[in-house]
């Protein structure tokens, strides 16, 4: 089983950047879910809204992947003049607000004339650690020129490509799907590819650190193995007995909805490494493992719910969750992590799924 | 018992220190305060049982022990204790709602502010009463 | 996930395995107990604080006669006994959780736990004995310090 967990991202800056070619990114979650016939989730409205202000909306829009109005954002390009439009307070109902924000975000990406996009200088204060030369981590400041449309990942690239080639970080898809570039940005776990620099209070130095609680290997790269170990332990694959059906395993929309939220996990470790209980000794299974257990425990086609619940009943399992809500706050996919953990706890108490 | 020394500790604690994690404002700070108040109350509880045990020795000794508490410094300490107990109790109810109420996780932030509000509302009459007791003689 | 320059790094936690799974419901019961005792304690402790600090002359009125007057009634005896036991269990379990979280070495963890278990036993035994063997009108004591019903 360990084979399918091989490193899924290329690590930049380790040896020769040119050699770090595209390795086939076999994603564990994708493998696991293949049998479950789960539809891949395009970002929902709620997720995109997080880009705007970094805070998940209180009332999550029900995750309906189909209803995202992706097609008509270009229209708003005429009246929205750059960043100013983002600041416009959009008060009405949560649904409308989300749509409006999304439109603005889309607008900026499709803007053609570079002159209309504001350009400014920012300082990135990056926590560096190069094991060959450093005995301990230290902070280093970089000044970079960025556009209003740039994400933190773009700024990191600029530093790496133009100023200091030794800067090391992971990234792969750069679109918030692969889960490679979770890092601690201004003290919070975020994906570098989903954080616009202009939203990160660019007047002050932006701090960038590796995620907390996992051993740092180099600069922003941490050893993810303890994280994936927990993930493996909860058996992230469909367990279904009996004769294999000749067609797909049928599931009602209601049954599918039951675990929809937790199918969105991209295993970026933002949640687990935001958890104060995980920081202490790293023995706690952590939110991500519980979320992925939840995804199968509440799947009507799966038959190993009892086994997974028993694993999470462990001393290092769900009972170590102290409902701090850092994980819910950190999740770049807007998963209600604490809610999922609470549901697993309740399932353990009643032994009913 | 858990595994031995962990690399997490050695690599993460390098100087200069990293930033403070800025997690979920309401959730994280409620948890921090819940822990701190819990430990404070526990320590007080140990002392409180021991001093109350003096009633078994003699009335004089108990009155003497309790007499050392009757000054304004201890009075303020008692106010702090009540403040801690009230927060711990109210936030404990919030935690239980998060755990057992299906909508609890969604409303954890308003509930945290409700805890703060109720705490203030309950502390004001108590402080008026208690401070007039300890300063009014 | 091993890198060629491994010697320069901290040895990763090896092997990446959790201590043997516990296969017991101990943590479940302890979690449930914290919540159940918590509810009861809210009533008991806030009632206790209200009667001792808010009613009458408040904290200034506390003395032997006050305590003796309270414990002359079985109602307050049971109230205080229940509060003692639940609060000590709740508190000890809470501190145990904190020790589990923050103690880094197994030996530290073990001895800190022994310390709080010892404190638990001492305080609970002492408190229980005091409540049960308490005499509100001890022979030979100064009558002015005793509750009024001792005159009879």
- Structural class by sheet pairing and helices of chain A: alpha+beta
- The percent range for helix content of chain B is over 70%
Helix content of chain A: 25-40%
Mean pLDDT score of chain A:
78
Using the coordinates above, name the CATH class of chain B. Mainly Alpha
Description of the molecule:
The complex is a heterotrimer of chains A (353), B (137) and C (152). Chain A is built from twelve helices and seven strands. By secondary structure, chain A is α+β, with helices and mostly antiparallel strands. A five-stranded mixed beta sheet of chain A has the order 2-1-5-3-4, covered by helices on one side. A two-stranded antiparallel sheet of chain A has the order 6-7. In chain A, a hairpin with a 2-residue loop joins strand 3 and strand 4. Chain B has one domain: 3 helical TM bundles of succinate and fumarate reductases (Up-down Bundle). Chain B has helices at residues 7-12, 25-52, 59-67, 72-100, 108-136. In chain B, helix 2 (25-52) packs across helix 4 and helix 4 (72-100) runs antiparallel to helix 5. The longest helix of chain B has 29 residues, at 72-100. The radius of gyration of chain B is 20 Å and the shape is elongated. Chain C has one domain: Fumarate reductase/succinate dehydrogenase, transmembrane subunit (3 helical TM bundles of succinate and fumarate reductases), CATH 1.20.1300.10. In chain C, 62% of the residues lie in helices and 0% in strands. Chain C has helices at 26-54, 64-71, 74-102, 106-133. In chain C, helix 3 packs antiparallel against helix 4. The longest helix of chain C is centred in the first third of the chain and has 29 residues, at 26-54. Residues 1-15 of chain C have low confidence and may be disordered. Classes of the chains: A alpha+beta (353), B mainly alpha (137), C mainly alpha (152). Chains in contact: A-B, A-C, B-C. At the B-C interface, helix 1, helix 2, helix 3, helix 4 and helix 5 of B face helix 1, helix 2, helix 3 and helix 4 of C.
